[in-house]
Amino acid sequence: SSELTQDPAVSVALGQTVRITCQGDSLRSYYASWYQQKPGQAPVLVIYGENNRPSGIPDRFSGSTSGNTAYLTITGAQAEDEADYYCSCRDRSGKHFVFGTGTKVTV
Amino acid sequence: QVQLVQSGAEVKKPGASVKVSCRTSGYTFTSNDICWVRQVTGQGLEWMGWMNPNSGYTAYAQKFLGRVTMTRDTSISTAYMELSSLRSDDTAVYYCARLLGYCSGGLCFEYFQHWGRGTLVTVSS
């Protein structure tokens, strides 16, 4: 079982804000990165570091961390944001990585 | 631009082995670790392990110990993942990903910046 737990699904109205959570003990020691995955496609990095977006990722995506929980916020969700989202960081041993259980976002 | 190009789909019988390749370009192959992640249809992402292309050092997830081997050929900037003793529940899409990281203010951050498009491995008798 994953060491990072996410809500299985959330829904958001077009243009509204949604926050996705990722919970796990290893988040007290390591920052999470976040990935968007659409059906039939490879994951795409959307947030890394304290709150950084790769080139091409809209600024409506932001990240934050508090204690053992990481958050991905989509402010002003668009139809194209409908996807599965995964968090990831090192595991408690620090030797490996782990992915969260994934959250399906419906817009 | 950075590209990770994976080998094509495979169909294998139970008990066989599969070797998936990940040919990289657009950056110095030995500069970043390569990780392998798999995804069973309808399920989440599962980290399998990583390899340092410079040293060849590998670390595998407990679940795959004894069955997975990650190697590389630096002359052609290509990483490989071989999974043996295949079972039907190994049917999945296998991804390679480039691991990047940096440190700032005493904190270090790591993330999978670039991904291959995935290789479907089907295990069926």
Q: Can you describe what's shown?
A:
The complex is a heterodimer of chains A (107) and B (125). By secondary structure, chain A is mainly beta. In chain A, the strands form two sheets. In chain A, strands 2, 4, 5, 8, 9 and 10 form a six-stranded mixed beta sheet that branches. A four-stranded antiparallel beta sheet of chain A has the order 1-3-7-6, with no helix packed on it. Chain A is globular and about 40 Å long. The N and C termini of chain A lie far apart (28 Å). The model of chain A has no long low-confidence stretch (mean pLDDT 95). By secondary structure, chain B is mainly beta. In chain B, 0% of the residues lie in helices and 56% in strands. Chain B contains no helices and eleven strands. In chain B, β5 and β6 form a beta hairpin. Chain B is globular and about 50 Å long. The model of chain B has no long low-confidence stretch (mean pLDDT 96). Classes of the chains: A mainly beta (107), B mainly beta (125). At the A-B interface, β4, β8 and β9 of A face β5, β9 and β10 of B.
The overall pLDDT average of chain A reads 95
Strand content of chain A: over 45%
The fraction of residues assigned to DSSP E strands of chain B is over 45%
SS-derived structural category of chain A: mainly beta
- End-to-end separation of chain A: 28 Å
Q: What is Rg of chain A? A: 13 Å
Number of strands of chain A: 10
- Indicate the overall shape of chain A: globular
| Helix content estimate of chain B | under 10%
Reading the helices and strands of chain B in chain order gives EEEEEEEEEEE
Q: How many separate helices of chain A?
A: 0
Low-confidence spans of chain B: none
Mean pLDDT of chain B: 96
Measured as a percent range, the helix fraction of chain A is under 10%
Write a compact overview of the structure shown.
The complex is a heterodimer of chains A (107) and B (125). With 107 residues, chain A is mainly β.
